[in-house]
């Protein structure tokens, strides 16, 4: 059966135009913004699901919303607990602003598997989880690690320069 493909931009429009979602543009995440990270994950998910001919619309929406929280939502939660709790925050925010189907809810809630121990129940959710991990590794190595290494080299250079004077 042939069907018309819904564009990524059409799927994303409602979500990325939401005022709370726009706040993700100011949230640091993996060396860039949470907004940029979520778009990367969603685009990767969209392309993978489209090729597999599965529910790319639900998966793309879930990918856009998988990290839909701002740091103030955490209150006093820190460290690894953030990784365990943030899917619940993202889901609560997503449900407050958008109508979600069960596949979208499950993908958002379980995208941190294996950290959260419960895997997504759909192939679309597994793709969101996989895309999130792949994008995060890329972002850490490309943006955060590079910045960290640059700061360390600058620090070491300054120490060596000062010790030679």
Structural commentary:
This protein is an all-alpha fold. The chain has one domain (about 10-165): Hypothetical protein af1432, CATH 1.10.3210. Helices cover about 65% and strands about 0% of the residues. It is built from 7 helices and 2 strands. It has helices at about 10-15, 20, 35-50, 55-65, 80-95, 100-110, 125-165; strands spanning about 30, 30-35. Helix 3 (about 35-50) packs antiparallel against helix 7 (about 125-165), helix 4 crosses helix 6 (about 100-110) and helix 6 (about 100-110) runs parallel beside helix 7. The longest helix has about 40 residues, at about 125-165. The mean pLDDT is about 85.
Characterize this entry briefly.
By secondary structure, the protein is mainly α.
List the helices and strands and how they pair.
Elements lengths: L7 H9 L2 H4 L5 E2 L2 E2 H19 L3 H10 L14 H18 L4 H8 L13 H42 L1
Antiparallel strand pairs: 1-2
Helix pairs in contact: 1-4, 3-4, 3-7, 4-6, 4-7, 6-7
Q: Main beta sheet: strand number and arrangement?
A: 2 strands, antiparallel
**How do the strands of the widest beta sheet line up side by side?**
1-2
Q: What CATH architecture label applies?
A: Orthogonal Bundle
> Helical stretch count?
7
What is the 3D shape?
Answer: globular
Strand content: under 5%
CATH homologous superfamily identity: Hypothetical protein af1432
Radius of gyration: 18 Å
Q: Kindly state the mean pLDDT as a whole number?
A: 86
State the secondary-structure class: mainly alpha
CATH topology: Hypothetical protein af1432
End-to-end separation: 75 Å
